[in-house]
Write a structure and sequence with these properties.
With 260 residues, the chain is an alpha/beta fold. It contains 7 helices and 14 strands.
């Protein structure tokens, strides 16, 4: 293992279920020495992935924060793309994981598409993380820690820690969550949803001040606000977040590279 290769992060999508040329559905790319990790696969994610110069077959792991269509919508087409002869056929294993109920979720997909979204057993591993509490799993050259958050019953936040010791937390969709604070404690980067400005607060999602509070209490080194609905473009999201967070702060944009 080459521990000198840095963990790198690229925002694949900074948006939501609302169609947008500017923002694909929320997703992130995390690369380590030997792994290419995609967090969520909503509409537009594969196109953004290709725009980073990463092929679908280069991906080694895909993790889903929850089962809503704007986070899972490209699962079937992603697997289908891995079966295409010659140009993109997969030759090395793919691991796909999500919270409790994911095996049944995938079986329902298969009941619709059948063999078109099936890969050989030696090339496909399905993981189902327990949403009852925090779990830690070692995979390839990174560890992944999951914690339940406040959105759907299966909703998870993820902490990816590379061989270089750098850690990235991906909140997924959530309302204010003590579990997320605990998971993000001391992380180098928190990619946190801030779906709506304070004046449009809705249950199950965060506002910028709430995201800032989570980052401050967790003591993260840097905060990126993502999963931005169109209302966010009409508000001063940075100023709102600065009410509670004084550290490094960035509003996510598609294809933005984030240095750890």
């Amino acid at each position: 293992m080459n521990n000198t290769v840095p963990t790198r992060v690229t925002i694949l999508g900074s948006g939501t279920c609302v169609p947008s040329v500017k923002r694909s559905a929320c997703a992130a790319l995390i690369t380590t020495a030997r792994s290419v990790i995609v967090m969520d696969l909503g509409p537009g994610t594969m196109r953004r992935l290709i725009e980073t110069g990463t092929s679908v077959t280069a991906v080694t792991h895909v993790f889903f924060s929850h089962f809503h269509p704007d986070h899972t919508g490209e699962l079937s087409t992603f697997i289908f793309a891995n079966k295409y002869p010659d140009q993109t056929r997969r030759t090395h294993p793919l691991t796909v994981g999500a919270g409790t109920g994911f095996a049944a979720f995938y079986d329902n997909y298969r009941s619709v598409y059948g063999r078109w979204i099936e890969l050989p057993p030696d090339l496909f591993t399905l993981l189902e993380f327990d949403t009852a509490g925090e779990t830690v799993t070692t995979l390839a050259d990174f560890s992944i820690t999951t914690a339940p958050v406040s959105h759907n019953p299966e909703s998870l936040a993820f902490k990816v820690t590379g061989a270089d010791g750098k850690s990235v937390v991906y909140s997924g969709d959530t309302d204010f969550s003590e579990n997320l604070i605990d998971l993000a404690r001391g992380a180098d980067l928190l990619i946190c949803e801030a779906a709506f400005p304070s004046e449009f607060k809705v249950p199950g999602h965060l506002t910028p001040p709430e995201a800032g509070t989570i980052a401050a209490r967790a003591g993260v080194r840097s905060l990126v606000l993502s999963h931005l609905y169109p209302e966010c473009d009409q508000a001063d999201m940075v100023a709102q977040c600065r009410q509670t967070w004084s550290g490094p702060l960035t509003l996510a944009e598609d294809l933005m590279r984030v240095d750890l």
